[in-house]
Amino acid sequence: MIQVKVAASRGTRMDKAPDLWSHVLPEPGRSLKTKSIMAGRRILIVDDEEGFRDGVADLLQMEGYTVSVARDAFEAVRVLPVFRPEVILLDLRMPNLDGEGFLRGMTGLPASRGVPVVLISAKEDLAQIASRTGAAGYLSKPFEAPQLLSLLEKVLPEPRTRRR
Q1: In a 10 Å sphere around its CB, with 0-12 CB exposed, 13-18 middle and 19+ buried, how is residue 125 labelled?
Q2: How far is 38 from 152, CA to CA, in rounded Å?
Q3: pTM, whole model, 2 decimals?
């Protein structure tokens, strides 16, 4: 089974440590889903752990998603109006402004209106935080790639209602 796990080596890029991410990505030429179903769907990943963020981005790109990444909440605010994501994958533990602070602040941003947010964290009380903040879903780190892909299918708006 393919798994997405938090890399212990903070700041490691996939191209410099391919063995570290061999458990994340499917075998060459193999995809977990039919790409035509999710082709071009826009996902914003907000996480300060570069190795994790890049690994998830690579997985989603291999599945046909269009992905943008932000290393913190402030960068995410700058990316939102330009990228116009259909789903935001949000880490809760980040420096400067944590995920909950970002969620409170994004309610006033027109570019984030109606965009479902999936919380991704190792926090023990993740389910309660997701419920309290109105998140569309949550995944506890570490999680398996099929869990992420299944959750994205559930929270993505129907293609005919996509925002442009």
Answers
A1: exposed
A2: 10
A3: 0.74
